[in-house]
Specification:
This protein is of the alpha+beta class. It has 7 helices and 10 strands. It has helices spanning 2-7, 11-21, 27-30, 37-47, 50-61, 185-221, 233-265, and strands spanning 66-70, 87-91, 94-105, 112-120, 132-138, 144-150, 163-174, 178-179, 223-224, 227-228. The strands form 3 sheets. It has a 4-stranded mixed β-sheet with strand order 1-4-5-8, covered by helices on one side. Strands 2-3-7-6 form a 4-stranded antiparallel β-sheet, with no helix packed on it. The radius of gyration is 21 Å and the shape is elongated.
């Protein structure tokens, strides 16, 4: 994996780091491990050509640029990666990209220079898992339109570039920008999203640990009916239940991370 080859650690090792960075909302950016950049780095490391790595992976690793990942679409159930309708059509030495994407995290940051786009290249007769491809689209390419920033629970997450609706209108890029080859998009998506889920889970577990710590501190400071809050049985149960839930989530996520490391070694 990217982490093992660059830093000497795998998904399991990195999971513990992700948990710690999850305790502070800006710490992933401090260490250049913020989504979606980490996932896009892995895509380029695992599946990119040497030219693609030189042009895009190296500046991402150095923190000189940011990126976005354009998969989810407004018109289809995007939890199924094979349902995407965005088209990637070969035209001589180029590909023409047309389609609508949304929830493209990080697309709004001024330093976002490259988009990894999932789209359809195969025809209906192809295997459903061989109809899609991933392609690199520089954000300054004519036809790339940032339509609007989407809100999550009323917030725009503008600090890290937000979650944008992005339209691709007859966007032309060189054929060398295709990643791994036509029809390999679903394969790449699974390779990217698996580790990405580990990272998200462990960052969330780190945040949960911080919340539990605050809860315990409050329970030890506040008094009601002549007792500290933690001395009330119901509060003690709440603390115990939260501790159990966090431990369960951590162990399950670490098991998944270990499985990814084992499978990639084999």
């Amino acid at each position: 994996t990217l982490f093992r080859s660059v830093s000497g650690i795998g998904q399991l090792d990195y999971a513990f780091i992700a948990e710690e960075t999850g305790k502070c909302f800006f710490s992933p950016e401090v260490f250049n491990c913020q989504p979606p950049d980490t996932g896009n780095m892995e895509v380029l490391h695992l599946y990119g050509t040497e030219k693609q790595k030189k042009q895009w992976l190296e500046p991402l690793l150095e923190g000189k640029i940011n990126s976005c990942f354009c998969m989810t679409e407004p018109d289809v159930a995007s939890s199924d990666a094979t349902s995407m309708k965005c088209s990637i059509v070969r035209s001589g030495d180029s590909y023409i990209v047309n389609g609508k994407k949304w929830w493209s995290s990080g697309a709004g940051t001024a330093n976002c220079k490259i988009a990894v786009v999932l789209g359809r290249t195969g025809n209906a007769s192809s295997s459903r898992h061989k109809q899609h491809s991933m392609i690199l689209v520089p954000m300054e390419t004519p036809g790339v339109e940032l339509v609007r920033s989407l809100k999550v629970y009323g917030y725009e997450d503008a600090r890290h570039g937000g979650h944008f609706e992005v339209h691709f209108n007859n966007v032309q890029v060189p054929s060398s920008n295709i990643i791994l080859g036509e029809g390999r998009g679903f394969e790449i998506a699974q390779g990217r999203l698996g580790p990405g889920r580990i990272h998200h889970c462990m960052r969330t577990i780190g945040l949960a640990e911080q919340a539990l710590q605050i809860m315990c501190e409050r329970a030890g400071q506040r008094e009601t009916f002549g007792k500290k809050l933690y001395e009330h049985e119901v509060v003690a149960h709440w603390i115990a239940e939260n501790r159990i839930a966090i431990e369960q989530a951590r162990l399950l996520t670490l098991k998944a991370a270990k499985s990814i490391d084992r499978d990639r070694k084999s």
